Amino acid sequence: MADRRNQLVTRVRELLAEALGASRDRSAAAQLALTAARERAVRVRQAAAGVPERVGAERDRRLAEIDSRHAARLTVLAREAAEAASREAPGAGSADWPGWRPTPAQRAEAPGATRIGTVRLTGTAPVPALVPLLDAGHVALDGDADGCAAVVAALLLRSLGRAAPGTVRLVGYDPDRLGGGLAGFAPLGPAGLLTFVGPGGLGRLLDDLVEQIRRINETVLAGEHSSLRELAAATGRRPEPWRVAVLLGGEELSRHERGQLDRVVRAGVACGVHLIVRGVPVPDEPSVTRVTVTADGARIGRLPVRLDPSPPATLVTETCRDIASVVSAGPAPTPFTDLLPPADQMWREDSATGLTAPIGEGPQGRPVLLTLGDYPPHALIGGPSGTGKTNLIFAWIGALAARYSPAELEFYLLDFKEGVSFARFAKGRRDPSWLPHMRLVGINVNTDREFGLALLRFLAEELRRRADAAKKHEVTKLAELRQVDPTGHWPRIVAVVDEFQMLLAGRDAVAREAADLLEDLARRGRSQGIHLVLASQDVRGIEALWGRPALVAQFTLRIALPKALRILAERNDAAQSLPKFHAVVNAESGLTEGNQVARIPSASDWETWSDLQHRLWRMRPAEASPARLFDGDAVPRLADAPDFRALRAPEVGTPRGPVALLGEIIDVQARSAVLRLPRAPGRNLAVLGTRVDEACAVLDAAARSLARQHRPGSARFSIACLDPDADPAARALYEDLADDAAWYDEETVAELVAETAGALGAPGATGAPHYLLLFAVDAAAGTLAARTGRATGLEHLRRILHDGPERRTHVLAWWRGVARMRADLGGTGARTDQIGAWVALDTHGGELGPSLYPGSGGPDWYPRPWRGLFFDRAVHRTGQTIIPYGPAR
Ligand SMILES: Nc1ncnc2c1ncn2[C@@H]1O[C@H](COP(=O)(O)OP(=O)(O)OP(=O)(O)O)[C@@H](O)[C@H]1O
C-alpha cells in the first residue's frame, strides 16, 4: 500500500514537475513575448512619435512643389498675357514713356488698344492693362481727379501715336476747366485737330456727333460695310478720321442729351466716334470700359491695375506739335496703288462703250471716276504751273493702262512745254521698259508746232479710216463696229496734248489747220473712239478755244486743279478754294452741280511710276513695239533713219530714180524728207542760208544716202568746199565716200564745172551718175566769173544746172543767201526753175518769194536752229519742216 502511495506521490510529483516546467516555459515564452511586445510598443511609440514630423515634411514639400509649379505657370501666363497685350496694343499703344514715339498703324491695320497701366500681380513680369478705344469702345472714368487725368492723357497720346497725323480729331468739353489731361494737347488746336466746346455746348456737341454717325452710316458705309474698321480692312482706305470726344463733368444732362449720349455710345464705335467720359453718367453697354481710379491704383472693370505715370508733358506737347505741323503742311497724298486694280485683275476691262478709271479719292473716301466715251467724249485740264497737271496725267494714264489692254486702248501724247517727264513712256537708255499702250510721245515740241499738226493729221486719217470701216459695215459707232468686226484692231485712242495752246498760238497756217483739225476730231472723234485730252496752265490757251464755241462744247469733261481759271463754268469757282493736290472733276461742262472733288495721288515720281510700267511692260504682247519718241531737243541720226536703212544699191546698173535724204520730217513716223533725182529737168537742190553746220548736214545726208544706192565705182561724187568752216564736214564726207569722191577747192572748182559742162555734150554722156556737192558755192563767184575756155565758170555752172539732170548730173549746192544764188544764176531777173528743190535755213519766208515758192508772199517760215524748210516744186504744195541729221561721226 505504501508503495502504491509512494508510486502515486512520485507520479504526482513528476506530473507537477512536468506541469511546472511547462508553465515555466510558457511563462518564459510569455515573458519573451511581453518583452518583445514591450520593445515593439517602444518602437511603435517611437515610430508613432516620428510620424507627424514626416507627414508635415511631405505636406510642406508637396505644398512647395505646388507653389513653384503655380509660380512657373503664373510666370508663363503673365508672359503670354504680356505678349498678347503687346500684340493687342502694338508700338505706341503700349510702349513705355521713355523712348515712346508715334507708330501709326498701316492703312488696313487696326490701331489696337491702349495701355494705361499694368495688372496688379506680384512676382511676375508686368502685364499691360489695356483699354480698347479707337474702333473698339468708349471709356468711362471715375474716382481720383489726378489719376483720371493721367489716364485721359495716356489714352489720347497713345491713340494719336497709333494713327496717321490728322486722322484723330479731339473735342474737349470741360465746363469746369478741370483740365483733365487735355491741356498738353493744345498744339493740335491750330491744325483743327482739337476743339473745345464751352459751357452749355454739350448738347450741340452730342448732336453733332450723332449727325456725323448718321452721315457716315448713310454715305460712307452705305450698307456695304458694317463699320469703318471693316471698310478699312477691306479696301485699305480710311475715309473718315476718328473723332474722340472727352467729356469732363458739367451739369446734369437733359433728356435729349441723355438720348443723344446713348446713341453715340451704341452706334459711335462703328463710325469711329468715341467717348472718354468722367462725371457724366454713361449707360451700361458692352462697348463701355469702366476705369475706377483709387488712391493706390485703379480697376479696369474688376481687374486691379497699377496705373502708369502720366506721359511727360514735353512728350505730349512735342508729339502734338509734330502732328499739327504735318497736318498743316497739307494732306498726305493717297497712294497711287489706290487707282490700280489688283495685279490679277489688270487688263480685264472692255473699252467698247468707253473708258472709265478712278483719278483719286472723293471726300467720302469713294473713288472719283473719270470716263471718256460717247459722253463725255473729250477732256480739258487746267491749272497754273506746279499745281499737278503732269502728275494728274500720269495718274490718269496709269489708272487706264492698268485696266485696259493695249488692244483696247492706245495713247498718243504730246508735250509742248520743255521737259522730259513723258519720255519715260517710251523706251529709254536708263530704263528699257515702255508703256505698251503708248504709240507716240512727243516731248520738247514747244517750237515744233508742226509736230502737233502732224499728230492731228494722223488722228484725222485714223478717224477717216474708222468712219470708212463703220460705213462699210453699216454701223455708226465704235461699239457697233467692234461687234460686227470682232477681229479688227479698234482700240480707243486717247490723245493727250499738254500746253496745247502753243499749237493754236499765232495766226499762221499751222494754227489755222490745227484748230480746224481739232474741231473736226472733237466733233466726230466721239463716235469713233478717238478722245482728246487737252491740258493747259495758261488761261490764254483756254481762251484760244473759247473763240471756237463749237469746239469747246465738245469738251464736256473738265478737270480743274487748284486756282485754275476758266476751266469750269463762269460762276463755278470751286477750283479757287481747292487744297493742294486736289482737283475738281466735272463731267457737266463745268456747271456747279457737276463738281466732284478728288484727292489726286502722287503718280509721277520715278519709282511709283516705274513699278506700274514694268509690270505692264512684262505683260506686253509678243508683237508689241515701243512708242515712237519725238524729242524736239534731240538731233536724229541718218544711220538710225528707217528710210536710210532701207536704201539698197541695185544688183547691176544704176538706180532709175535715186533719192537724196535731206533730214527727218517732223511727223508721227520718223520718215525722211526725200528728194527724188530722176533724169528730169530741174532735179537739183539748193540749200539756202548762212548756217554752216545745218547746211553741211543736209548735203552730207544727201550724199551719203545717194552713195548707198550705187555700187562702188558706179557713181561720181565731186565735193567742192569753198568755206573753211565747212571743211571738216566736207572732208569727212570725202573720206567716207573714198574712191567715188573727188575733192575740189577754190583753185580747182572752175576746172570741175568746165569739165562737167563739157562732158554734158559729149557722146554717151548719160553714163555714170555724177553728183556735184558744192559747199558755199557762192564763195567761188569771183573765181567762176573768169573764163575757162569759151565760157565763164558761172556759165558752165548754169549749163550743168540746166542740162545736167537729164544726163544724171545733179547739183546739190549750198548758197549762203537767196540773193547770192540769184546772182550766180544770172541776176535778179534770172529764172530759177532749174532749182527744182530747196532747203531754207535762216532764210525768211519773204525772201523765198514768187519765183521759188507758189503764191506771192513766200512760205510761213520762221527760221530756228537746226530746222529747215524743204520745198520740192515737183511734189509739194507747201513747205515741209525738216530736222537735219546730226553729223555722221
Ligand atoms: N497729287 C500729288 N501728290 C503729291 N505730289 C504731287 C501731286 N501732284 C503733283 N505733285 C508734285 O508737285 C510738283 C508739281 O507737279 P506737276 O509737275 O505735276 O505740276 P504741273 O502743273 O504739271 O507743273 P508744270 O506745268 O510747271 O509742269 C511735282 O514735284 C509733283 O511731284
TrEMBL record:
It comes from Micromonospora andamanensis. This is Cell division protein FtsK. Pfam families: FtsK_SpoIIIE (PF01580). GO terms for biological process: cell division. Keywords: ATP-binding, Cell cycle, Cell division, Nucleotide-binding. Residues 365-570 form the FtsK domain. PROSITE patterns: FTSK. CDD domains: TrwB_TraG_TraD_VirD4 (cd01127). InterPro entries: FtsK/SpoIIIE/SftA (IPR050206), FtsK_dom (IPR002543), P-loop_NTPase (IPR027417). Residues 85-115 are annotated as: Disordered. ATP binds at residues 383-390.
